[in-house]
Amino acid sequence: MELKEKLVSSFMAFEDTVDVDSPVHDIRTEAIKHFENEGFPTKRQEAWKYTSLNSVLKHDYSVFPKHEDALEFKDVKKYFIHDIDSYKIVFIDGKYSSHLSQTTHDGIDVCLMSAALSKPKYRLVIENYFNKIASKDGLSSLNTAFSAEGAYIHIPKNKLVEKPIQILHFSTGNEAALMLQPRNLVVVDENSHVQIIERHQSLTDNPVLTNSVTEIFANKRAIVDYYKIQNDRETASLIDSTFINQKQESIAKVHTFSFGGKIIRNNLNFYQNGERIDSTMKGITIIGNKQHVDHNTLVHHIEPNCESHQDYKGIFGDSATGVFNGKVLVEKEAQKTDAFQANNNILLSDKATINTKPQLEIFADDVKCSHGCTIGQLDESAMFYLRSRGIPEKEARGLLMFAFSNNVLDSVKIPEIKNRITKIIANKLGVNIGFDL
Amino acid sequence: MSKYTEDDLREELKTKEYEYGFYTDIESETFPNGLNEDIIKAISKKKEEPEWMTEWRLEAFKVWQDMEEPDWANVNYEKPDFQAISYYSAPNSKPKYNSLDEVDPELLATFEKLGISLDEQKKLAGVAMDVVVDSVSVATTFKETLAEKGIIFMSISEAIKEHPELVKKYIGTVVPQKDNFYAALNSAVFSDGSFCYIPKGVRCPMELSTYFRINQAGTGQFERTLVIADEGSYVSYLEGCTAPSRDENQLHAAVVELIALEDAEIKYSTVQNWFPGNAEGKGGVFNFVTKRGLCENNAKISWTQVETGSAVTWKYPSCVLKGDNSVGEFYSIAVTNNFQQADTGTKMIHLGKNTKSTIISKGISAGKSQNSYRGLVQISPRAENARNFSQCDSLLMGNECGAHTFPYIEAKNKTAQIEHEATTSKIGEDQIFYCNQRGIDTEKAIALIVNGFSKEVLNKLPMEFAVEAQKLLEISLEGSVG
């Protein structure tokens, strides 16, 4: 594969730009070897059975964008959750944009991966956490090999971070085709609480491929609330791999809102290394045209008395394809596990496709594990009820679809995000829902 | 439920027509180990098959050579060496033992619990016995009844000779030679099996069964079954046996093809209880089966299975719902104990309009066993108003076993309605306590609860099977709870 060779050979050039003495260097060299062996995933692999990257990999991507471009805040304001005060880490074509960002070192570290990788004061954290839970598959290894930039967030003990942190990646279209590989590390120590919002946005129709890896460590009793907003153009593709390691009594929630993109693949992996952990992953997917969204989740229950909740809703129109591949793995020590998984889908068109595979792998006997999965249509009688009360068909349909996906929004803790998502859904469905929440 | 006694069995034997009379007597002979074109030609020749059949086998063999043994199933085992197996061994007529005293007492104890008569026990264990039970006349009356209705029921080797047009028309249409590794192997070397044809509009008056044939002839290692229900007909077919079969053949790769033409209905019930290996996981049968049915318009195929035996099971009875308004059903209980591994489930392929499918799967794992459900529900773009309901429940006993669910659901039509549910649980201590305080000991209580858990499937079995299957469940799980 051409792109593969290009990437492997650009690794040399990449090495010239980074510090080869850093401990991360060995990790990178090893990772590129992994990638060379594994390559890009194909449909022959079980985890990629329903998602082919061929249409995405054919472009001649620039791996190191040369131009630097400044964006005016007013032009990109709408992509921020701008009505609340927040920390911001903004990247333009993979490069940090200091004038759009607002970082801090005041008690907490909200800054750049490049700084964390090079400055000695972060060395201990990097040694302890960097690349400790990211998987060793081809795509994650590729990201590890080229890991240089991204968000670095370290919240020490007993801190409640009052403002959410927004991570934004813009691609300007200065390159004919661009490949981005952001690498994020989030470490939340004991009793701390943080909220993070992540978004990838392409500003033109030039193809973009983002291969992002995020490692999150939620230590004892930490609370991590992570929101992913994916509403990109139909020329932008995203492979987003998130790995979350949880310690005892921690709570981690990831909400994924997928409303646009050419191919979106979300790999979401939770590892529960402690007792009484709570993991939640929820998502709403509403897509049309030829878009493709693939949710691939794993919850690994390793210790007793933990919980996990999964709830994914999908609405697929036109020739869109939805994939859900959820896996709950309960080890034999993980007694009293309570795992729940739900995946509900609506198909709006005869050309749309849903492939869903909710898996349970259970080795412990005293557990409560269940999953449910449905594929169906909007209820005719509910439609009739609304229309008989004078609500036009389009609005009625919109209301029903909104109601269908609504309970995912219940657990969203930031009202502004709720508002924003509601608006995006209303736009998507082409209706005025008429209420804000 | 009343106790199943020896008298009942004797009664049953009387009415059940013990020997169907299609036992082909070949001198005891075994081919050298290994597989090549000559062996296949020799098998075909031995069975006096017409040339098209030999060609068909060779074609399958060619495909098989290029195939790789699949390893996607959730099972671990040492792959058989396909060149170390003898592909043709005529039924061994020599008894293994001279009297029941030589037989493994464990086996006898099981027979006792299943309520199997002494004669029957001898037969199952391979003990020499006089031929009282082998009543030729019974078989003849049985055949006559079927012949009156125009039903053809015979071994597939006979069918190839006597009804080549039917066999040629249908064999390989549902499970093609190149379908999968084991189906290809089976197509190349299948030794024998059953053939059944129900003519138009005929309702088969009795349940057709391979029950006794299997016990008698030692089993066909590579069985091939072909059931054809012509327009508007009905047949219920029973396969297998509740009594534990000891068999030297380690690898079993059977193929079953069902064809339900317009308005026809086929009910196919299986009880599988091959040797599962001993408590340490040594030995045991590898059971790799390809079963598939094809439904034309308004046809219905219903698979019911109780899987308790075999060290490794790899089996997915499927329905291709090709015709409009066709119905596919799958009811399964899979029990694994000790070191058994089962990867079983179904495929429902919805092609026609208004097709319906139901999947009820109950998995019970105990000991150190692994039990997986693997299923596919596929709705093609043309399958308007397709409906599927799936339910997979797992029961775990002890924390050394595993229960796994791998449901694949692929919908390409907006009118599809699909529901899938799966749960995993254990037997509640409160349930056991409730039984205990009413004087039911723990072992009995577990049997009671397991029966309740599997009731939905047990109910689908024909009467005589259901009684035995229920007992079989109890025995399979014996000693699994401390």
Automatic annotation (TrEMBL), chain A:
Domain SUF system FeS cluster assembly SufBD core: 174-404
Residue intervals of the SUF system FeS cluster assembly SufBD N-terminal domain: 5-167
Domain of life per record: Bacteria
Matching Pfam families: SUFBD_core, SufBD_N
InterPro entries: Fe-S_cluster_assembly_SufBD (IPR055346), SUF_FeS_clus_asmbl_SufBD_core (IPR000825), SUF_FeS_clus_asmbl_SufBD_sf (IPR037284), SUF_FeS_clus_asmbl_SufD (IPR011542), SufBD_N (IPR045595)
The family this protein is said to belong to: Belongs to the iron-sulfur cluster assembly SufBD family.
Name this polypeptide is given: Fe-S cluster assembly protein SufD
TrEMBL record, chain B:
Name used for this protein in its record: Fe-S cluster assembly protein SufB
Similarity comment: Belongs to the iron-sulfur cluster assembly SufBD family.
Top-level taxonomic group: Bacteria
Segments forming domain SUF system FeS cluster assembly SufBD core: 212-453
Organism for this UniProt entry: Winogradskyella poriferorum
The SUF system FeS cluster assembly SufBD N-terminal domain, residue ranges: 123-204
